Amino acid sequence: xxxxxxxxxxxxxxxxxxxxxxxxxxxxxxxxxxxxxxxxxxxxxxxxxxxxxxxxxxxxxxxxxxxxxxxxxxxxxxxxxxxxxxxxxxxxxxxxxxxxxxxxxxxxxxxxxxxxxxxxxxxxxxxxxxxxxxxxxxxxxxxxxxxxxxxxxxxxxxxxxxxxxxxxxxxxxxxxxxxxxxxxxxxxxxxxxxxxxxxxxxxxxxxxxxxxxxxxxxxxxxxxxxxxxxxxxxxxxxxxxxxxxxxxxxxxxxxxxxxxxxxxxxxxxxxxxxxxxxxxxxxxxxxxxxxxxxxxxxxxxxxxxxxxxxxxxxxxxxxxxxxxxxxxxxxxxxxxxxxxxxxxxxxxxxxxxxxxxxxxxxxxxxxxxxxxxxxxxxxxxxxxxxxxxxxxxxxxxxxxxxxxxxxxxxxxxxxxxxxxxxxxxxxxxxxxxxxxxxxxxxxxxxxxxxxxxxxxxxxxxxxxxxxxxxx
Length: 471
What we know:
It contains 16 helices and 19 strands. It has helices at 6-16, 25-28, 52-65, 119-128, 145-151, 158-161, 196-200, 234-248, 260-269, 297-311, 323-334, 336-343, 358-372, 401-421, 437-443, 446-459, and strands at 21-22, 43-47, 69-72, 90-94, 101-105, 110-114, 131-132, 168-174, 180-183, 209-216, 218-219, 223-231, 252-259, 283-291, 316-319, 344-347, 350-352, 377-383, 388-396. The chain starts with 5 loop residues before the first helix and ends in a 12-residue tail after the last helix.
């Protein structure tokens, strides 16, 4: 049962009704642990408002009573940003009942929906009107658009379409004191003051509750061309990326990289996958073009890759000859998270670097990690096209908690110091949450951190929104 004060519980019940409350321990359990099972907390109650008005009522009550609130969408985050702490005093506010698509406007290329709509449902709704919503993640069948916005999620199509921030035009947000900012404007141009939309996107629930959004749609691609390439080193892939951009322009949608150890891990731990190339290579890339015109796309990709083979930028190429082969390529890429969970305990580094700095970073980081531990297992993969690497260190599955904690602190400092030296970011697309909160304080300047704290204090003076996360 909830340990909330009975009067507070009564007020929350009046706001959301029986269907909006989860009080029993068994019912609350799925909301109290993140999907990676890295963070587990205890919530006093789970509140599931059905609409913006109910959300506003809940926040007004929590603001008045100084009750801390953790907003949660599909609970698919990678950094513990939507998990309550262990105090039992925090309320989890789940947006999953706010799941309506309010409007689709194909002439304006926009879709307006509530925060609890699954990403896959948004993609399907766009397709029904011959449009395309390009945000694509491995968790798209279970993550919500509210969570995507709160963390400014990335995914496989950032290279062409941008992060979630670039895919949103307007927001509706319930502020910590229960007021509602009605910012659902479907406009490409609006110079009427501060850009409040961008303030809430990426704020990880620390400034308010995103309840709805206007999203940008794009023309639906009718043709795709996909290839898998093998290269001798990461420098060769960077060169190939530059060539493909020059040859193919905005048709280049994805350029996914993985090292040989990453591919080997997937082949060992994911069913029904096989190596796309006949020989082993130090680095691999999965490349995809897409276009609204169906003619000549495959020839364009093949011509560019032939030049890369002739110049030595790549060593081997397999161009997909069918939809099934394309799916097989993508299954390999999408299996990396599953493979890591099965093979060991990953110390994750979700980093962003200038593309020109990636090769030098990879060499320096590997040398430094091997100097610290000659047996270290480095799993290096990610979205090379937009400079986002998942540069992970894999420990044995049976590693004791104290061993994992010590290794995490040691390897984080090595990797993140090198990222900072290259003017990179220690959080590219997964958010800061609990996982990187202390690291963020180490790398943010005093001025930048002070500005963030002032914004937080201005909007959330009672400090109730997602305490212990981000800042």
